[in-house]
Design goal:
Length: about 325
């Protein structure tokens, strides 16, 4: 119980889920349905999204070391879960009904015990990440010429099982088709079983009736610094200035502050200021500009250097007593 949520989920997959999934294809179906029920029943400590995410991290590397029956079983298990996730992805109304407010989608728990859940757009970005992670894993095996027989076979077996829910991105579909065609052509006459599996997968890929998305349709990319239309530039979003320029700005601002105080003091004492009116207006304009946090003052290192320099000057200015 002292472990983090991610570590608990990894332990749950390795000790409870995988042994049952690999036993047979019917056990894989049972395990996938169990995971879905755990989500639907709102089990407090079961995080559905973390489970699926960890599944792709921990399980995909194991595919290359399985028997053909085990590859069939794990392919069935992944297909059921990914198809269910894709169902949530396809409609915001279904997502709100079956996911919103569920413990399985909690992304953050605050100190006051309130929680923050993954919203619909964030979930769509996760689905995009899973699609790309699957493609990367299969591409790393199938793109290598004369790769090990077991690795290529298991990848083709799992990909065939995942055909209803992967790939769904237009660019990925094209790349996967090229990979399968390459395996079909290069293995023909050498390892005919692999060539036949690749040809069978290609037929299934082209016959399936599923929507194919552009990347922009599948999810909305997260913009780091969105700029609002017809609005002034948000100064907090501007990249920090280099240290030397930041220090020059700080010195300039200090000089303006001193000049402004001196001008105000002269007006109070003498009724007029020695600083020209035009210069006063420019100084007041510069001082009225907002200064973001990262532009205010000197860097800590430069501040320390300045203090050391002042100490050295004081020591040098003191007369030496004979």
């Amino acid at each position: 119980l002292s472990c983090s949520g991610g570590q608990q989920t990894s332990s749950f997959i390795q000790t409870c889920v995988l042994p049952r999934v690999l036993f047979s294809e019917s056990d894989a179906i049972y395990s996938a349905k169990l995971i879905i029920i755990l989500h639907q029943q709102r089990i407090t400590l079961f995080q559905s999204l973390v489970f699926i995410d960890k599944l792709f991290i921990d399980v995909l590397p194991l595919i290359c070391a399985l028997t053909e029956n085990e590859a069939n079983a794990i392919g069935t298990f992944l297909q059921i879960l990914l198809s269910h996730a894709q169902r949530w992805h396809s409609d915001s109304a279904i997502f709100e009904k079956e996911c919103e407010g569920f413990p399985g989608l909690v992304s953050k728990t605050r100190q006051d015990k309130t929680t923050e859940s993954v919203n619909y757009e964030s979930f769509r970005r996760l689905c995009f990440k899973w699609q790309m992670r699957l493609y990367t894993a299969f591409n790393s095996v199938l793109s290598v010429e004369n790769n090990e027989y077991v690795q290529v076979r298991n990848c083709l077996v799992v990909m065939t099982k995942l055909a209803p829910c992967f790939p769904l991105l237009k660019d990925v579909v094209e790349n996967v088709e090229k990979l399968a065609e390459k395996v079909r052509d290069t293995e023909k006459g050498k390892r005919d079983e692999l060539s036949l599996k690749a040809a069978s997968y290609l037929v299934r890929l082209k016959m399936r009736n599923v929507p194919i998305y552009e990347a922009s349709q599948f999810h909305r990319p997260l913009m780091k610094h969105p700029v609002k239309q017809n609005s002034t530039l948000d100064r907090k979003r501007v990249a920090p200035l280099p240290p030397t320029m930041r220090e020059d700005r700080a010195d300039e601002r200090k000089r303006d502050q001193k000049a402004h105080k001196r001008s105000a003091r002269d007006e109070e004492q003498n009724g007029h200021s020695k600083v020209a009116r035009k210069d006063r207006e420019q100084i007041e304009s510069r001082l009225s500009r907002p200064v973001s946090h990262d532009r205010r003052g000197l860097s800590p290192t430069r501040e320390k250097e300045r203090r050391d320099e002042k100490k050295d000057r004081r020591k040098e200015s003191k007369p030496v007593r004979k």
